[in-house]
Structures are given as C-alpha cells and as structure tokens.
Backbone:
C-alpha cells in the first residue's frame, strides 16, 4: 500500500530564484498525506544547501543532489523514490493550481481504472506578463483520441500519473530533450486509460533558462519531427468529415491575419486558439521580476478556475459540452 496519496516530484538545476518561488507555494499547499520529492542535478548556485535546510525542517520529504543526465533522468529518479499512489510532475520555473490538482488526485483515488489525468495549461512570458494564453487544441486532441484512438501530444505540466501504471506507461526517455512530447505520444499510443480535467492545472512561464528555449529552433524541429514520425508512421485514412475540416482550415489560415486586423480596428471581440487574456499586470521598475511572474500566475489561475465547471471526462462517460467546438 502506498505511504502517501500524492507525490509531487520536482527536478531542478541552477534555478534557485525560480525554485524558491515554486517550493514556497508547494510547501504551503502540501497536505499530510502528500510528499515532496526533489532531484537536483548537481547545481552550483546553493540549491543543494537550500534543499538540505528544507529537508531538515521537514518541509520536503525526500531529495537528492547529484550530477545527472538531464531532466528526464531527474524525473525518473524521483519516480523511483516516490511513495505516493499518484504522481504529480512539478517543474522548477512554472506555476501550478494545487486545489484542482488535489481534486484530480482524489478523482483518481476514487476511480482506480484511471491511469493518467490531463488538463488545461495556461502560459505567459517572463518578458511580458500583461497577457496569458490557454490553448483549446489539447482538449480537442484528447476528444479525437477518446473517439478514434488518435495519438497526440501536449505539454506535460498538467499531467498526473498513477504510480502503479509506470509499468505500462514507462518512465521518461532520457534520449530526448522534449520529454513531454515523447511521453504523451507514447501513452496515447498505448492501452492507457486517460481522463481529462477541465480545470487549468498549471501555467508555463516562458523564460530564457527553460529547456525548450535553450534549444535552437533547428534542434527543436529536428527532435519534434523525429519523435512525431516514430509515433505517427502509418496514419489512418481520414474520414470525409476530417477532409472537409482540413480543407476549410487550409483556406482560413492565410486569411486570419487580415481578419484579426479588421476585428481589432472595429473593436470587436474574436475567438483565438490559444485564447488570449489580459492579466492586468502593470510593470514596477523596483519589483522582483521572478516573484512578480509567480504572483501574476497565482492570480490568473485563481480567476480562471473560479469561473470553470470542473469535470473529469473519460471513456466510461459521454463527452461533455465543456469542449469548445
């Protein structure tokens, strides 16, 4: 039997200012039946000493600090160390909405047939906190997977995994940088029972130190194409409906910039994917930019989830109308 209900697993490397913001919020949110497991890749910025002090104070339950072979290796070590029934991935420079995460974990405990939960992710940029975006595409991709078994990928920040199902899903591929790309394609290609949570579970803060941004565009595209071709080697023949939708999309795509300019000039609202939201952020030259980014994320996640109908969609239920068409 699992020692904890939920294990938060976190990897980090030389990002102490970001890490402190993440762990401050995570430690404040942690419940008695939850643990925090951290793998530091041998940072030289005081991270090991910081983690040791938190461990000594009982604020984190497990940690390791040693040179590793990248993010996937660190997460895999955490997965092997974790003692919780459910595993939640946490990154060292992004924000998370813990009330909904806890609700998702509770849903998995009550529904043992569910192996993985996915959900919505928001995003902002450290150099422009005035707006945030939420993509609807992952929800639509999940809907296609639910109906037709079509593999897809999405960012890994909102994902929860049942620890006992690691034998089926596998752990992270240490041979890639785009870890979540490969992992999500893999689990949506297997007989994994995945549920979708309609809450916004996480928020990505794009910053220069992120793994994605440290890759060159050429390297990103090369890895993306290599992984995608591996999992989508023999696409199914498209239905008539899909052909019509794709044809309409190809016609609309080059017209969208002119449409957006026209709507902006007229002052009309328009739907975009990803949908763009004003955060209300006003720059203060004396602020701590990293702390400000996390405060904005906290406020945005609170406001979004306060107005959302939170449901869990999976194979045993009909697809709800919460999906935008």
Residues:
């Amino acid at each position: 039997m699992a020692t904890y209900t939920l294990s938060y697993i976190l990897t980090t490397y030389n990002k102490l200012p970001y890490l402190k913001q993440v762990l401050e919020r995570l430690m404040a949110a942690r419940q008695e039946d939850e643990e925090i497991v951290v793998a530091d890749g041998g940072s030289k910025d005081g991270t090991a000493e910081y983690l040791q002090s938190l461990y000594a104070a009982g604020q984190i339950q497990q940690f390791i600090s040693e040179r590793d072979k990248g993010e996937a290796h660190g997460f895999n070590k955490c997965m092997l160390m974790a003692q919780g029934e459910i595993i939640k991935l946490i990154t060292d420079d992004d924000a998370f909405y813990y009330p909904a995460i806890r609700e998702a974990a509770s849903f998995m405990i009550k529904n043992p047939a569910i192996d993985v939960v996915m959900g919505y992710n928001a995003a902002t940029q450290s150099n422009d906190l005035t707006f945030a975006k939420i993509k609807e595409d992952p929800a639509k991709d999940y809907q296609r997977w639910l109906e037709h078994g079509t593999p897809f990928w999405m960012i890994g920040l909102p994902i929860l995994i049942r620890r006992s199902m690691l034998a089926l899903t596998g752990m992270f591929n240490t041979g890639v940088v785009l870890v979540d790309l490969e992992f999500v394609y893999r689990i949506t290609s297997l007989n994994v029972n995945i549920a979708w949570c309609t809450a916004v579970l996480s928020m990505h803060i794009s910053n220069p130190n992120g793994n994605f941004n440290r890759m060159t565009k050429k390297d990103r595209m090369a890895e993306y194409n290599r992984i995608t071709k591996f999992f989508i080697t023999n696409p199914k023949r498209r239905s008539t409906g899909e052909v019509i939708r794709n044809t309409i999309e190809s016609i609309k795509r080059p017209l969208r910039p002119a449409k957006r300019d026209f709507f902006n000039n007229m002052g009309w609202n328009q739907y975009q994917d990803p949908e763009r939201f004003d955060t209300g952020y006003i720059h203060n030259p004396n602020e701590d930019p990293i702390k400000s980014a996390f405060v904005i994320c906290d406020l945005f996640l609170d406001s979004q989830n306060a107005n959302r109908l939170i449901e869990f969609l999976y194979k045993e239920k009909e697809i709800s109308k919460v999906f935008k068409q």
